[in-house]
């Protein structure tokens, strides 16, 4: 009888004990040794749990639900956590690269966080939302994302601060240059870097060449090139030199493409892919993609650029499922800490998604919200209580909807 009582005494049942899973990941990848103070590990894991489990990521709400930490300990942690200027994430990526055949690629893009009632948040200002074609009150964040097609890792990010709120102003392009320099400094190797027209400047392309990073990016239709000794032609004019029969339809890509060699002013020789959506598409429906990989087949250039869509999916996931837009802190350091926690939480959820063979981030969040952890003699068992029709956490106000066609992706 006494043995039976001891057995039952060694059984514990908990609802919110995903911290053991996250704690294991923290120790496995040595996040506790460089990303934050080691004595704050439990607080860090608790904050990640709050971001994953709850619709309200405020420190007060997390402290009320997960009672082993206080509100003050959570807020004190925020300015101490940052993935910026820390190579632990790059070491994590290199660990993935060592286990796979692909180096992966980098994507540069920025995202808007709308904060209509956040007038007192330091970096907020009136920003143009291209998704809704109007100005909104919010902030811009420039993100450098690594992906190999099935796993995404945010390498670093920079919060854009408007001129009137800082003494040392940096454009979003300069922030992107700073992040590429950071990735190269710590030896991150990739197949190529991709980005849209907003970042395809001479300064960034020159830096990528210096860092031995290949690039695949889109140009605006007024960029000047030299083609067959014809100087200062914009790419729009170059596309008009070819009739529609000179374009070739590539079934795998789904576009009519004509690839030529041109000289881009200040950069050198590049391969230009003229991409049309349809046999009789007008010039205004033509996209211009360049790469320094001069031997790349035309359809491969387009496929590589379309991989840029991974970052749009990433933005959607962190907004819908990880409370990215629900930040409730004001200072720059705490904002950087909160966004770092969201990005790291995304990595944890992505690992758990792959381990559990789930299809989406949403399904993984639903699993984590609904399981019960049972420990018997310190052996961990997970029981999932979620029904098949159980809905995952949703955020009602979602920006950047995913487009339904590849052409939308190419035009984004």
Describe, in plain words, how this protein is organized in 3D.
By secondary structure, the chain is of the alpha+beta class. Among the domains are: 2-83 and 328-384, no CATH class; 211-306, no CATH class. Helices cover 37% and strands 24% of the residues. It contains 15 helices and 15 strands. The protein has helices at 2-9, 19-28, 31-34, 41-53, 59-65, 71-77, 88-99, 172-185, 202-210, 235-239, 298-306, 309-321, 332-355, 361-370, 406-411; strands at 11-14, 105-114, 125-129, 134-147, 152-159, 192-195, 215-219, 224-227, 230-234, 248-250, 255-264, 268-276, 286-291, 371-376, 379-384. The strands form 2 sheets. Strands 2, 3, 4, 5, 6, 7, 8, 9, 10, 11, 12 and 13 form a 12-stranded mixed sheet that branches. Strand 10 and strand 11 (255-264) form a beta hairpin. Helix 13 packs across helix 14. 38% of the residues are buried. The model is unreliable at 386-405 (pLDDT under 50).
Which secondary structure elements does this structure contain, and how are they paired or packed?
Elements: H1 2-9, E1 11-14, H2 19-28, H3 31-34, H4 41-53, H5 59-65, H6 71-77, H7 88-99, E2 105-114, E3 125-129, E4 134-147, E5 152-159, H8 172-185, E6 192-195, H9 202-210, E7 215-219, E8 224-227, E9 230-234, H10 235-239, E10 248-250, E11 255-264, E12 268-276, E13 286-291, H11 298-306, H12 309-321, H13 332-355, H14 361-370, E14 371-376, E15 379-384, H15 406-411
Parallel strand pairs: 2-6, 6-7
Antiparallel strand pairs: 1-14, 2-4, 3-4, 4-5, 7-13, 8-9, 8-11, 10-11, 11-12, 12-13, 14-15
Helix pairs in contact: 2-4, 4-13, 5-6, 8-9, 13-14
């Amino acid at each position: 009888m006494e043995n039976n009582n001891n057995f039952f005494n060694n059984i514990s049942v908990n609802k919110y004990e995903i911290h053991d899973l996250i704690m294991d990941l923290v120790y496995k990848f040595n996040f506790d040794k460089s990303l934050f103070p080691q004595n704050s590990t439990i607080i860090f894991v608790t904050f990640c749990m709050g971001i994953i489990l709850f619709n309200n990521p405020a420190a007060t709400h997390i402290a009320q639900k997960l009672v082993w930490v206080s509100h003050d300990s959570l807020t004190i942690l925020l300015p101490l956590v940052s993935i910026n200027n820390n190579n632990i994430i790059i070491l994590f990526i290199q660990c993935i690269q060592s286990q796979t055949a692909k180096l992966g690629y980098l994507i540069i893009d920025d995202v808007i966080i709308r904060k209509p009632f956040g007038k007192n948040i330091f970096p907020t200002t009136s920003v143009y939302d291209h998704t809704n074609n109007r100005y909104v009150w919010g902030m811009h964040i420039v993100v450098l994302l690594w992906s190999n097609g099935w796993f995404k890792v945010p390498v670093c990010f920079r919060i854009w601060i408007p001129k009137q709120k800082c003494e040392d102003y940096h454009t979003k392009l300069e922030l992107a240059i700073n992040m590429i320099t950071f990735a190269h400094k710590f030896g991150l190797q990739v197949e190529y870097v991709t980005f849209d027209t907003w970042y395809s400047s001479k300064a960034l392309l020159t830096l990528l060449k210096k860092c031995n990073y290949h690039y695949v990016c889109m140009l605006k239709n007024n960029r000047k090139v030299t083609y067959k000794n014809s100087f200062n032609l914009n790419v729009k004019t170059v596309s008009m030199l070819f009739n529609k029969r000179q374009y070739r339809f590539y079934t795998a890509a789904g576009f009519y493409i004509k690839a030529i060699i041109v000289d881009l002013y200040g950069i050198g020789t590049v391969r230009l892919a003229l991409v049309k959506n349809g046999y009789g598409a007008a010039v205004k429906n033509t996209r211009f993609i360049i790469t320094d990989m001069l031997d790349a087949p035309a359809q491969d250039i387009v496929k590589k650029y379309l991989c840029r869509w991974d970052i749009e999916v990433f933005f959607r996931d962190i907004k819908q499922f990880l409370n990215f837009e629900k930040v409730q802190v004001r200072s720059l350091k705490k904002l950087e800490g909160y966004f770092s926690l969201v990005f790291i939480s995304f990595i944890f959820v992505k690992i758990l998604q792959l381990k559990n063979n789930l299809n989406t981030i949403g399904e993984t969040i639903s699993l984590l919200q609904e399981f019960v952890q049972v420990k018997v003699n310190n052996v961990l068992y997970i029981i999932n209580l979620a029904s098949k029709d159980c809905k995952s956490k949703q955020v009602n106000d979602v920006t950047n909807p995913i487009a339904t066609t590849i052409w939308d992706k190419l035009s984004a």
